[in-house]
Design a protein that fits this description.
Region (Disordered): 96-134
Signal peptide: 1-22
Largest sheet: none
Keywords: Signal
Shape: rod-shaped
Number of helices: 1
Number of strands: 0
Order of helices and strands: H
Biased composition (Basic and acidic residues): 116-134
Length: 134
């Protein structure tokens, strides 16, 4: 019976020590898991911060490019408007010259017609006076 009692005490002692070790291991593994979770959360936060910074930088670059494109488009529109104004002014100058040339030609044609009519009138008048004299 003494052996039985000692064996039972030994089994009880071993049982308590293994149970105690398991609890310690569980506590250690829980602490380790918490540290792993904490590390993962920190890494995720760093990744989110990095992604946000990259997105902000890309947005800034895109806005700069859009601004440059808009400025170039405005410059192109301004240049096209100036070209249109120049072309219109040239067309108006040519039209004005054409009108002046047409007016001069018309004036010369009227003068020529007037001279021809005057000659004809003079001729008829001279013929009429000559017939009267005869």
């Amino acid at each position: 019976m003494k052996k039985l009692l000692l064996n039972t005490a030994l089994l009880l002692a071993l049982s308590l020590s293994f149970t105690s070790c398991r609890d310690t291991k569980k506590a250690d593994s829980i602490e380790e898991a918490m540290e792993n979770v904490s590390d993962a959360v920190e890494e995720a936060a760093d990744d989110v911060k990095e992604a946000t910074d990259d997105a902000m930088e890309a947005t800034s670059e895109t806005m700069d490019e859009a601004g440059s494109t808009l400025e170039k488009a405005a410059d192109d529109i301004d240049e096209m408007a100036n070209d249109a104004v120049d072309a219109t002014n040239e067309a108006l100058d040519k039209a004005e010259k054409a009108v002046d040339d047409a007016a001069k030609s018309t004036g010369k044609a009227l003068q020529d017609a007037s001279d021809a009519v005057e000659k004809e009138v003079q001729k008829i008048t001279d013929e009429h006076y000559e017939k009267k004299k005869n």
